[in-house]
Automatic annotation (TrEMBL):
<dbReference type="Pfam" id="PF13407">
    <property type="entry name" value="Peripla_BP_4"/>
</dbReference>
<dbReference type="GO" id="GO:0030313">
    <property type="term" value="C:cell envelope"/>
</dbReference>
<feature type="domain" description="Periplasmic binding protein">
    <location>
        <begin position="56"/>
        <end position="312"/>
    </location>
</feature>
<comment type="similarity">
    <text>Belongs to the bacterial solute-binding protein 2 family.</text>
</comment>
<dbReference type="InterPro" id="IPR028082">
    <property type="entry name" value="Peripla_BP_I"/>
</dbReference>
<dbReference type="GO" id="GO:0030246">
    <property type="term" value="F:carbohydrate binding"/>
</dbReference>
<feature type="signal peptide">
    <location>
        <begin position="1"/>
        <end position="32"/>
    </location>
</feature>
<protein>
    <submittedName>
        <fullName>Ribose transport system substrate-binding protein</fullName>
    </submittedName>
</protein>
<dbReference type="InterPro" id="IPR025997">
    <property type="entry name" value="SBP_2_dom"/>
</dbReference>
<feature type="region of interest" description="Disordered">
    <location>
        <begin position="30"/>
        <end position="49"/>
    </location>
</feature>
<keyword id="KW-0732">Signal</keyword>
Amino acid sequence: MSARAARSLFSTAIAGLSVLALVGCTSNTPEAEKNAPATQAVAKGKNDEPGKKVRIGFSAPAADHGWMGAITKATQAEAKKYSDIELIVAEGTNDVNLQISQVETFINQKVDAIVLLPFDGAALTPVATKAMEAGITVVNVDREFDSPFAARTTILGDNYGMGVSAGTYVCQQLKGKTDAVVAEIAGIDSLPLTQDRSKGFKEALADCGLKVSNRVAAKFTVESGEEAAANLLQAAPKIDAIWNHDDDQGVGVMAAIKNSGRKEFFVVGGAGSANVMRDIKSGNSLLRATVIYPSTQGADGVRLARLLVQKKALGDLVEVEVPRTIQLFAPVVSKDNVDQYLPTAFES
């Protein structure tokens, strides 16, 4: 499938799913409405009205990255908006065995739901399945489990879509410049998410006759970003555009660019940090755009868990059940729309 076709498909799908306003039917439907068509009942409900108390356990990796820290912060803030949610937050950890133990504790506490962003999806699959078998609703966030039986619903970002969005933006900016030199600073190459981002970027560029001329990989850290960017700048005497996969490592990338004194290219970021958006808004930086990888996934997971336990639906869908999988969109943030996205951006 070409990137153009992929863009068309995921744009159509997101139109129905990215809203996540979560307004649907409640269980307190009057008797007269119970006899009405299901679509009418869904349309008349209000999901934000208090309902059955929902105890939710939340576990995620350690906040050793701006994006990951924002995941937990946004999740806690979202839970506080609802008087019928009790959120139990486990300490963030990159120890797989400790995270398994945290889920075991949630099972023993007989929580109603678990929102789980696993450090390792495969390793957490058995204990998540155990929770489901115990009658606990599991919402899988960001890193997928190996089994469909391990979660009721999975909410994901769109790594391939990030690459497509970044590549499409670069194509638009370099329109007609068929000899343009496009560079890419990836994250950890062994990770599927990095591979997906690079694939989407490559395919989007191909649609406008461009290619990745120079590519280096970093490790999602400031230090690795600076080192990778310095190597790239030494190897490529001419560059027209750079896509950096991650705004946290981008702090180092921009430091290397500043030290080089070069200004002949523009930079597109990835993930959507607040500091990058502020630079974009200022108009005084080589950073011209960034591509969102939502840090609201845990918050959305909490809202979905609440709906599932209270047996509510997504009000913007005709379907009366919460979907099995929801994939969030990867929009491009530029100076034209930065004010829309800055309030939910994470700090690097």
